[in-house]
Amino acid sequence: MGSTKDVTPPPVRLRPITSTSVTRSLLKRAKVDPDAAIRDCGKAIAFNAKDVAAWSCRAFARQLKGDLKGALADAAKALELNPDEPAALTARAAARLRGGDAKGAAADAARAIALDPKLSEAWTQRALAREHAGDLPGAKADYAKSIEIDLFDSIRS
Questions:
Q1: Interatomic CA distance for residues 67 and 150, integer angstroms
Q2: Class of domain 18-83
Q3: Which of 1, 49, 71, 126 could form a disulfide with 62 if both were Cys (CB 3.0 to 4.6 A apart)?
Q4: Does the fold of domain 90-157 match that of domain 18-83?
Q5: DSSP-assigned letter for residue 6
Q6: Tens of pLDDT along 58-89?
Q7: Residue 40: pLDDT band by 50, 70, 90 thresholds?
Q8: 96-143 residue pLDDT tens
Q9: d(CA 123, CA 114)
Q10: pTM of the entire predicted model
Q11: How far apart are CA 149 and CA 126, in angstroms?
C-alpha cells in the first residue's frame, strides 16, 4: 500500500477588517469628518487592540476635535505598541503643537520624517511647529517638501 499524503490546502490569508476601517477613517479625516474617523478607528481598535494605525488615526482625529488629552493618550498607546510608528509620532506632534508645545511637536515630526521621509503630514507638522517658533525659513522649506511629496504622489497615482 502507498503512503497517504496530507493534501490540505494552505490557509487562505484574508485581509483584516481593520484595514478597511482604517482606510475609511483616513479618508473621512481627510474630508474633515473627525467624528466619523473616531468612530471607525474605535471599531478597528475594538476588533484588534494592537492596530497601531487605528490608534494613530484616532489620535489625529481627536486632536482635530480639540480633544488633546485623548489624542495624546491614543498616540501614546500607538507608540507603546510601536515606538517607531511615523503616523503616531505625527499625530502626537499635531496634538503637542495644538497644546502649545512647538518644541515637542518639532521633535516628534523630525523623528517621523527620519523614519518615513515620504510622509508629507510629518513635514507639514514640522513646518507648523517651526512657524510657531518663529523659524520662517525652516517652515518654508518644510512646507515646500510637503507639497513636493503630495504633488509627486498625485502625479504617480
A1: 27
A2: mainly alpha
A3: 71
A4: yes
A5: P
A6: 999 999 999 999 999 999 999 999 999 999 99
A7: confident
A8: 999 999 999 999 999 999 999 988 899 999 999 999 999 999 999 999
A9: 10
A10: 0.80
A11: 14
Core vs surface per residue 82-101: b (16+ CB within 10 A) or e: eeebbbbbbbbbbbbbeeeb
CA distances from 54 to 46, 62, 86, 144 (A): 10, 12, 13, 28
Q: How far apart are CA 68 and CA 96, in angstroms?
A: 8
Q: Which helix (H) or strand (E) holds 135?
A: none
Q: Worst-scoring range by mean pLDDT, 31-35, 129-133, 148-152?
A: 31-35
| Domains of the chain by residue range | 18-83, 90-157
Q: What is the DSSP letter of 2?
A: P
122 CB-near residues (< 8 Å, 6+ apart): 86, 89, 90, 93, 109, 112, 113, 116
Fold of 90-157: 1.25.40
DSSP 94: H
